[in-house]
Amino acid sequence: MSVEKNPSEAMSQRDELEAMLPFYLNGTLDGADLAAVEDWLSNDPAAIAALEEAEAEFSVTTASNEALRPAADALSRFSRALDAEAGPPRTASLPSSLSRLWSRFVAMPAGVAWAAAAVALALVLVQAAVGPGGRGGPVDLAGTERADLPFVLVTFKPQATLADVATFLADQGATIVSGPAPGGMFKIGIPATTDADYERIVGLIAAQPFADTVTIGRRPENGG
Amino acid sequence: MVGMTAAPGQQTDRELVERVASGDRAAVRLLFMRHHARIYRFVARQTGSDMMADDVANEVFLELWRQAPSFEGRSEVSTWLLGIARFKALSMLRKRKEVAIDEDAAAAVPDTADTPEVALMKDDKAAALRRMVNALPEEHRTVIDLAYYHAKSVTEIGEILSIPVATVKTRMFYARRKLGEALQAAGFERGWP
């Protein structure tokens, strides 16, 4: 195992293995270090107990971090600072609706059930430019729903974080059009012009850990 | 699923930084939404101040706007941002120390650890361990946070903290050993000495 030594704080090989466990758990270990840890885990019963301790540390560290909540107006304050630095926007970028959405996202207490939290959102956000792929350009949102906008109906798992959902949807060019309907169902606008695009994006949504149920809604009019 | 006509997945952080470098404000806002909470938490854990974390996190993304053209992509964008955050947090801490302002700000920071009474009530091993992680010296808690919460490698942590890889490992070892000792002292079994 290729570990650099600090002369004043030399560690035994067992110490080094203990120090590597967090990196084994977070998936960043490779090469000789990974082989050494896996060999240890395979051959030393004490290693399993050590791994369990590291898993417990992993869990509480994550919980401690996630208990910290940024200010609700973080994005709007940053946007103002950015505009002050860069001058007036050349084009409308993020409208206030998204800023408000973000503010509500981060302001929500951890653990609040998704559907209950989202009732307060009353979202009516539709992406204005929904070309194929829906990515690569500015995130321009308009406040009205396009009549033929393809959509899918989604319910979210209770542990889904609002920020994760928002980020994923923004990346896909998808938007929450409305919701929740009875049963906690949200209507998600899909920026697709062909069936293939539609199925690709819906498949991605279904594969996300935050998605609970996904029900096919309106497909692109032209099919494809 | 029917055959794909477009590449799956989302735009990468690096692609977004390229857009930022060309003056795309929507891209910097997307990066803000992706990374702000983690940057905020990183600084809040370092400084113990939510106000400072707010200010520093904001500054980090303004710095991203300024420095995007010079980003060479040698590290992950998140690693780069954490490095900027670390530097700015330390600078702010130094300034604050020099002018000795606002002692009350730290007191205003929500203490994520429980009061002794509450702790006693729910003093299971996980609760105890959580308090012990939070009570680690900053240099030890930071490597714990970066590995467990930010999922950074030994090399990336070295880059973020500007310390040698060997020091990252040493700090991780001592952080974990302190946790083990503290757990044992509190009467909990520990799987390693």
Strand content of chain A: 5-15%
Q: What spatial form of chain A do the alpha-carbon principal axes imply?
A: elongated
N- and C-termini, Cα separation of chain A: 55 Å
Task: Identify the CATH homologous superfamily of the largest domain in chain B.
Answer: RNA polymerase sigma factor, region 2, helix turn helix motif
Folded structure, characterized:
The complex is a heterodimer of chains A (224) and B (193). In chain A, helix 2 packs across helix 3. Chain A contains eight helices and six strands; from the N terminus they run H-H-H-H-H-H-E-E-E-H-E-E-H-E. The radius of gyration of chain A is 23 Å and the shape is elongated. Chain A has two domains: 59 residues, no CATH class; 126 residues, no CATH class. The longest helix of chain A has 22 residues. In chain B, helix 2 runs antiparallel to helix 3, helix 3 crosses helix 4 and helix 8 packs across helix 10. With 193 residues, chain B is mainly alpha-helical. Classes of the chains: A alpha+beta (224), B mainly alpha (193).
From the structure above, extract its key features.
heterodimer; A: 224 residues; alpha+beta; 2 domains; 4-stranded antiparallel β-sheet; 8 helices; elongated; disordered N terminus; B: 193 residues; mainly alpha; Rna Polymerase Sigma Factor, Chain: A; Arc Repressor Mutant, subunit A
SSE topology:
The complex is a heterodimer of chains A (224) and B (193).
Chain A: H1 13-25, H2 31-43, H3 45-66, H4 74-86, H5 96-107, H6 114-119, E1 126-127, E2 141-142, E3 151-156, H7 162-172, E4 175-181, E5 185-189, H8 195-207, E6 211-216
Helix pairs in contact in A: 1-2, 1-3, 2-3
Chain B: H1 13-21, H2 25-47, H3 50-67, H4 77-99, H5 103-108, H6 116-121, H7 125-135, H8 138-149, H9 154-161, H10 165-185
Helix pairs in contact in B: 1-2, 2-3, 2-4, 3-4, 4-9, 8-10, 9-10
